[in-house]
Design brief:
Layout lengths: L1 H4 L3 H23 L1 H34 L17 H11 L3 E5 L2 E5 L1
Amino acid sequence: MLSGVLKSAKAVQMSIQIINAFVAMRRFLASNAELFQRLGAVERKQIEYKADADQKFEQIFNAIEAKSIKPKQGIFFDGQIFDAYQFVSDLIRTARKSIVVIDNIISAHP
């Protein structure tokens, strides 16, 4: 606006550069309008799915923390991956009075 008030050659040159900048910006926006629309649609979908995914992850984490999911079978059956640390950890938690280790066999005494 100041370049419109001032009448020097420098002010006129700045005014022309400002107009050229706005013209270039308008051309850029017009030529990339479809891209911006697609990005907007992707962003909206991401927001929708994020809320749904957050809820599902929350359910999974709650189930893991609650340890409500127990295996249907014992610890030794065909095809099952055996986690000795988890087994011993669960066994130790079930002991009420003592834990006896005899010849590398662990047994909890309730």
